[in-house]
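Re: the 551-residue chain
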Amino acid sequence: MNQWSPSDWLYHAEGGKHAIFRYRPSAANKSNCLAEEHVLRIPKHDLASSYAVFGNASADDNAALATDHEVSNAPEQETKSFLFQRNVVQPLLGQRYLDLPRSVVLPAVFCAQLYQQAIASGNIPSSRLQSWTLESSEKKSTSNNYATNKCVKAALLRDHTTLIKHPRFADPMAKHNVISVEIKPKAGYITSSPLVPPKNRCKYNRTRYSLQQQLMQRGHVQKGWRRKIDQQDDSEIQNSKPFTPSNYSPLDLFSGNISQIQTALKDLSIHMQNNFRVFSNGTQIFGEDISPLEGESKDILDNLVRQCRSSACNKHDENKSADTVLLDFICSVVSKMLQREKLLRNLLSMQLLDVIDGDGAIRVYERLVHLCDGSNSKAEELLDEAMLLVDEELTEQPKPPQLRGNNLAISPFELPNCSILHKLIEEMDSFQSHPENEMNSSHEVCIQLVDQLSQEGCIYLLQNWLLSLAMCDVSFFVTFQCLADDQCTVEECQSIDNGGIMHYDVETEEEALRTRTMIHYEVKVVDCDAKPAKKLRSRTKVEDVFQFLTS
């Protein structure tokens, strides 16, 4: 029976609530098939809680070890996160683009040592260290694993910086470089909801991402990946770089046009922030304040396509650095993959389920709380439960006339029989963003209708808004390797069982002769957890900052 040892799991990355650990075993544990090419996703609150109790445990303490059987025999396998991804997200996004998490149970001592190793590694960004304290992580946590079970429930996920061997390729693929790009696409639309108040109508003119970049530049918004000035000492303030806004437009990425997609990726690669990272054979080589060692980019590019450079990289431009040439090549390849796959189209359709905007969500939430006798907790409990209730007959019954041609037509949630809701949807559908006197009139009508909504009507609108919010916050990995053209001559899109195959034309350095290489790739979405309804309590503060920007 294989044993899991904390020393075989290395800190890899993190978000606001969770930390990611990659399986990098010692030679003695190489045969652990369950963990091989996987990562653990663990709530930081549970790591901090475990360390608070078992922080003094010895590194070779047998209590920190677990067997495959113990880890895989997790009770309540179908967690809320699992059900949300399987029942709500996967059918709309596409099963081939989302691997479901596997729930595992870990000893608290195991997690305590992971916590200790992560802190000692020095790899945690300084801007994130505060979130590893028990007090800070507790504020964001929705988990009660340690307190109730004396153990920690985590998710075991595929490591998407690796590729699963494709059956069409006979040669061993381990010798080929594997490049993986992690992208946070953000919201690919501009809101047109009449529920946006006059003070926030700058939202009608630009993407939310563009507006937030300007707000960050002015100091109105702070993101977790950036070090907060009030947490720095004087020397850190002097050495910190000023924030530079990105020109990236999510509209380009979601356009379906390969040229615009490539422009979007290049803009992301120029100012990566927390939205663009590149890995080579599992090791991060590009990211915010991360770049390859001298000579590494050229070696990687030469290994990817022997003695070749993409024509899209302006190979004759001697002023370009090796890093830029490599990034341009990667952006060119990835843009072709994204253009031929359906992921971005499916993801955008789910994002467009937001028909009320954050400002409208605040108003609808207030109405729901009122209908719940003023109880925020009761309203949030109803909404969290409703997020898992999909319309099982969605594909069998046609949508009512009010939803035909509307963004809500693909909603996985059942439309309630609420005449006020139907009128509100019709009014939002017919809303025109100009002239201004009509905007004000439509806004007032919609506010009045919201104040008459039934409980079911409120839940329906908030279900779709929260689903959209989750889809605007996902990341996806595009992972690929270049192979010899004679290994496979047939192109195919990605399927549930296998990655995709595509041709890619490159030019040799000698006389710009064209040659063709085959590329094996996978596109996979991660971070698809449902957003808790409790987030609505503080939404006013999030939306109010937009008033600082003129429309």
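The first strand starts at residue 3 and ends at 4.
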